Amino acid sequence: MKNWSNLLRSDPDRGTQALLKAHGGLVYYTVRRILKGYPEDDIEECVSDVFLYLYRNRDRLDLDDDAMKSYLVKTAVHRVVEIE
């Protein structure tokens, strides 16, 4: 299993890009299902906010791949609730 936390700490930009590539679709899907009917710009901004939040809090995380997926989905739901 990949330890995303190590990658995010050692190379934050590359780690964030790799996470976006690996799990961006999951985050997008989660946000889009909740924000059904919202403009596409709002959905994309929310997805970006999830990864920005992750980037800013990378030093506090110690997550493998499964835990990271869960963290991203929970963070996406939390960000959506702030919008609504």
List the helices and strands and how they pair.
Layout: H1 4-10, H2 12-34, H3 40-56, H4 65-83
Keywords:
mainly alpha; 4 helices; 84 residues
What does it look like?
It is a single chain. Helix 2 crosses helix 3 (40-56), helix 2 (12-34) crosses helix 4 and helix 3 (40-56) crosses helix 4. With 84 residues, this protein is an all-alpha fold. 79% of the residues lie in helices and 0% in strands. It contains four helices and no strands. The protein has helices spanning 4-10, 12-34, 40-56, 65-83. The longest helix is centred in the first third of the chain and has 23 residues, at 12-34.
Radius of gyration: 12 Å
What's the number of helices?
4
Q: What's the main sheet like?
A: none
Shape type: elongated
Strand content: under 5%
Q: What distance separates the N and C termini?
A: 35 Å
Structural class determined from secondary elements: mainly alpha
Tell me, rounded to a whole number, the average pLDDT. Answer: 93
Number of E-state strands: 0
Can you tell me the residue ranges where pLDDT is under 50 for at least 5 consecutive residues? none
| Pattern of helices and strands | HHHH
Query: What percentage of residues falls in helices of 4 or more residues?
Result: over 70%
Task: Give a summary of the structure in a few sentences.
The chain is an all-alpha fold and 84 residues long. It has four helices and no strands.
